[in-house]
């Protein structure tokens, strides 16, 4: 296909190609990951993982292999291959430029910290949503999927030492942030922007796809907001790295807090969704909106950063 033909591709064609490419590479990654698990630990361990029987330490290690080989690496490969060889424009589709005010990262750090109460409020609202009676089967499937995802997360985030915490901070915090932002705010949001010609539509549709991708339906609303925040960081800055930074702060905080709780360094359970009150929710919303205003203006060069 010539470069001019690629430029003339309708965005929905690009989306179909990207989705097909992603599923194909993830499928191949799963087969490779399963083969590695079988070679290292045996078929029994792979079967235990499939049955979510994760009490065996080898099953937990095998799960990590599957997570990295069948999900983390394939998402990165799919995004890069699409941008490099299909769209033939890695700069536009991955947005890896570092040309943005560095003080923006400080403000984004503050945004992520003060957003916690608002995320909790959205989570509580989400948990109370119920489907009509005729969709009871669907709701049960959603609950089962949510429980399975939580069980997998609990196993992946078991940390008994600082070294295990640092390893999971790197994989869950940093690598996951990079590959998911390349996928959703890089390729998908760029395709949607070309399709809709509206940055707000592109941001929110990509955020909805990002939230649905995790198959945790009763955490859909807070993850939707997170996806939108990351999307606007990219739109305002023109770079994927502010979104990666925000994503890393969110994931990394979860890893560190889980480590501290598991090792009795803090008392509150990170899974508790009743830490804050309505005053904190309102304060979180007001401060976050103010910080987002600063983000937009700093990124656009309408406000000077305290340092360069």
What does the model show?
With 308 residues, the chain is mainly alpha-helical. It has two domains: 1-88, no CATH class; 91-308, no CATH class. It is 77% helix and 0% strand. It has 13 helices and no strands. The chain has helices spanning 3-8, 11-41, 43-50, 57-86, 90-94, 103-114, 116-128, 136-156, 162-196, 199-213, 220-237, 241-262, 278-299. Helix 7 packs across helix 11. 33% of the residues are buried. The mean pLDDT is 91.
Q: Notable features of this structure?
A:
308 residues; mainly alpha; globular
Integer count of domains = 2
Number of strands: 0
Cα distance, first to last residue?
44 Å
Radius of gyration, whole Å: 20 Å
Which structural category do the helix and sheet elements fall into?
Answer: mainly alpha
What summary fits the major beta sheet? Answer: none
- Average residue-wise pLDDT: 91
Low-confidence stretches: none
Percentage of helical residues? Answer: over 70%
- Strand proportion, as a percent range, falls in under 5%
Spell out the helices and strands N to C. Answer: HHHHHHHHHHHHH
């Amino acid at each position: 296909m010539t470069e001019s033909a690629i430029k003339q591709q309708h965005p929905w064609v690009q989306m179909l190609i990207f989705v097909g490419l992603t599923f194909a590479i993830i499928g191949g990654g799963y087969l490779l990951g399963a083969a590695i698990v079988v070679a290292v630990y045996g078929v029994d361990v792979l079967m235990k993982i499939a049955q979510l029987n994760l009490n065996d330490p080898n099953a937990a290690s095998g799960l990590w292999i599957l997570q990295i080989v069948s999900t983390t690496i394939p998402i990165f490969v799919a995004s890069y291959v699409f941008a490099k060889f299909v769209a033939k424009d890695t700069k536009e589709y991955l947005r890896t430029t570092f040309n943005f005010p560095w003080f923006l990262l400080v403000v984004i750090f503050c945004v992520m910290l003060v957003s916690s109460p608002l995320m909790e409020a959205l989570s509580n609202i989400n948990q109370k949503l119920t489907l009509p009676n005729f969709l009871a089967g669907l709701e049960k499937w959603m609950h089962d999927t949510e429980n399975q995802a939580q069980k997998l997360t609990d196993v992946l985030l078991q940390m008994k030492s600082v070294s295990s915490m640092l390893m999971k901070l790197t994989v869950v915090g940093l690598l996951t942030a990079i590959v998911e932002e390349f996928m959703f705010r890089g390729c998908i949001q760029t395709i949607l922007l070309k399709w809709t010609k509206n940055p707000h539509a592109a941001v929110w549709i990509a955020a909805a796809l990002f939230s649905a991708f995790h198959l945790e339906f009763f955490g859909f609303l807070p993850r939707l907001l997170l996806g939108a925040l990351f999307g606007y960081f990219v739109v305002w800055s023109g770079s994927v790295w502010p979104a990666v930074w925000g994503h890393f702060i969110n994931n990394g905080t979860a890893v560190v807090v889980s480590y501290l709780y598991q090792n009795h360094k803090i008392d509150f359970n990170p899974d508790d969704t009743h830490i804050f009150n309505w005053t904190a929710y309102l304060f979180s919303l007001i401060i976050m909106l103010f910080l987002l205003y600063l983000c937009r203006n700093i990124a656009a060069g309408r406000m000077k950063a305290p340092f360069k």
